[in-house]
Amino acid sequence: VAFGNSILVGFVATIIATTLGTMIALALVRYQFKARGSISLLLFLPMATPEVVIGAGLAAQFLTMGVAKGLGTIILAHTMFCLSFVVVTVRARALSLDPSIEEAAMDLGARPWKTFLLITVPMIAPSIAAGWLLSFTLSLDDLVIASFVSGPGATTLPMVVFSSVRMGVSPEINALATLII
User: Fold this and answer.
1) Which of 109, 84, 80 is nearest to 24 (CA)?
2) What is the pTM assigned to this prediction?
3) Is the pLDDT score of 157 beyond 90?
4) Residue 83 — very low, low, confident or very high, per pLDDT cuts 50/70/90?
């Protein structure tokens, strides 16, 4: 059950974080707007903030809002945590794109969406894939945030492994660690 929960949380949080992170990264690179600097700062904060602070803050926020803790809160917390890593990864690639390639496609008659899908997305695809993999790995491995925002019955694999290790490392834990690596 815990393994299935971890995979579910990892995939859902990663898909949401990758989609939103790619859009945010492109917006930060392509457009000028007043809150651009503030948004960039806010996106770097989760990467610099200890996970204990993030987990405790989110747990307090969920409690204040009256949100029942469970897999949904773990997914939301992991999405918020992983979003920064995706934005940084995709933004680094988007900064190095040559805008004249997209302009040439539009000069040849391609509409903006077709240019985006056929020119921009393939050029940033490696960074999107890297952001997805980084996000999934961080989500699958997270113990601290998940233990703060999980409810009864919503356990993930790192939580089970951590509780098992307190009693002593069994061969099952060693085998599981090998499979995860």
Assistant:
1) 84
2) 0.88
3) no
4) very high
